[in-house]
Amino acid sequence: MTSLNAVKGTAEAPNTEVLVVGAGPTGLTLACDLRRRGIDVRVVERADRLAPGSRGKGIQPRTMEVLDDLGLAPAVRAAGGPYPRMLVRRPGRPVAEHDMVERAEPRAGSPYAEVWMLPQWRTQELLYARLRELGGEVAFGTAVTELAQDATAVTARLSTGGTVRAAYAVACDGGRSTVRAALGIGMTGTTVDPEPSVVADVRLSGLDRGHWHVWQDDTRGALALCPMAGTDTFQLFARHAALEEGSPPEEILRRLLATRTDLSPDQLKEVAHASQFRVNAALAERFRAGRVLLAGDAAHIHSPAGGQGLNTSVQDAYNLGWKLGLVLRGQAAEALLDTYEEERAPLAAQVLGLSTRLHGRAARRGRETQQLDLAYPDSSLSRHPAAPHPSPLSPGDRAPDAPLTAPGDSAPGGARRVFDLLRGPHFTLLAVGDAAPPVGLPAYLRTHAVAATAPYAPDGLYLVRPDGYLALITEDPGEVTAYVTGLASAT
User: What cofactors are annotated for this protein (predicted)?
Assistant: First the structure.
């Protein structure tokens, strides 16, 4: 792939609005979000099918809220399950049983209380099915071999011989992103563990599927077998292990079972997928170069500890989708796209630090990994009026769920909860109590008059972005008008 260079002069008009490079969780989430906004999307994927393997198996509560908004929460809940308790075996010690995840019941503001297990391959299947329902498709076996951009569009040459010209392109092509390399964007980071690890999806006989089995040995290295919810497989994870070239994966994994566990190698019946990797933590030096943006692993690489990688990547897409949508429909200035890096790069750096701290530790995963507390208080899109509103919420906070009315009362459009009003590709203005909303607001913003209910109290105007974060809390309708007017001019 050649370096991406600006092409001067007038070029032909784009034949699609957004080119998404890569059909992993990031690219599929972005494509779904754009399609529901009516944006024309072309998704290309180098591989000939969706990536196999269960590697990213934890859907954090905040990501469940994203999938809920995309219409996928029921399917995700049906396909997965809660994390099982761990049985940890150490040489010379009795077997210990404990929870890796902090158990919690749904709360008023958080309908999804704890991480949900779903193999990554299944998450991708559900996202792909949703994309097709929305009229999108993926061109498999299609790589981007060359990129160029000018003032109006990006031109991509494809391995199949054709070209795509798009108003914008988004690199969702993983940690070894060829698009990022073509842009000349470096990665700054560190090696978390210099020794390789192996992850595999296997079928075993005679092993209890009600527990996550761990053999912890500081000399030989840890090995874990976790039953994958909704499947008949286990995810095998072995630290400080490698797949040897020329040796069948079955042979290597049977050897690992023999040397690191009390299982018989013959209990391994099938290896559905196996791969090895080294744990690195790295952040792209920038997330945007002209009309090309980076998302997911193309922008940041994580340790798998704490289940942050897939989740952070999905939320990159969720942050970027509404911004591209408004810009492409002429409802916001192109400068809005600069807020993508402004908001996501600091959070990605924060999550990288968390994943690195958790690597190799058996600490219970709780609130800090659920991503419900991630916020954008310092973003230029979070407007703090000179006279702060007395709400316990602040601009930049995630907008929590809440019941709208007492049982038996009516609610806007039959909605029962705040999330019912937020669901969809629009901004939402909650006119709480006696607060009077402004008139003449754009069509992408929906207004609902609701009774005050904690934490949406006291009375006021609560403006919620399409990605579920509070943009503004005020009693002055003029400030709401000024906010949306500002999107159309500059951010």
Answer: FAD
Name residues whose C-beta falls within 8 Å of residue 81's C-beta, 6 or more positions apart in sequence. Answer: 116, 117, 229, 230
| Cis amide bond preceding 94, omega within 30 | no
Q: Hunting for tokens 């709400």 — which residue is that? A: 391
Question: 3-state DSSP: the chain helix, strand, coil percent, rounded to 5?
Answer: 25, 30, 45
Backbone φ and ψ for 177, nearest 5 degrees, come out as -50, 120
pLDDT at 2: 47
Tokens 């399950």 belong to residue: 81
**The amino acid at 447:** T
DSSP one-letter string for 170-208: EE---TT-HHHHHHT--EEEEEEEEEEEEEEEEEESS--
Is the pTM higher than 0.85?
A: yes
In a domain, 450, yes or no: yes
Determine the pLDDT at residue 250.
97
Residue 451 and residue 434 in contact, taking contact as beta carbons nearer than 8 Å: no
Q: Give the integer Cα–Cα distance in Å for 3 and 412.
A: 52
Look at residue 434 and tell me if it is in a domain. Answer: yes
Task: Please check whether residue 86 lies inside any domain of the structure.
Answer: no
Query: Domain range for residue 31?
Result: 5-80+106-189+281-370
pLDDT at residue 301, rounded to an integer: 87
- Contacts of 262-265 spanning 24+ positions with Cβ under 8 A: 262/89, 262/215, 263/204, 263/206, 263/207
Q: For residue 351, what pLDDT is reported?
A: 74
* Mean pLDDT split into 10-residue runs, the chain, 491 residues: 43 87 98 98 98 93 96 97 94 88 85 93 98 98 96 96 97 95 90 86 97 91 94 95 92 96 97 90 93 96 70 96 98 97 90 58 57 91 92 97 71 85 97 96 96 96 98 97 91 46
Q: What one-letter code names the amino acid at 161?
A: G
If DSSP codes are grouped into helix, strand and coil, which group holds residue 313? helix
Name the domain count of the chain. Answer: 3
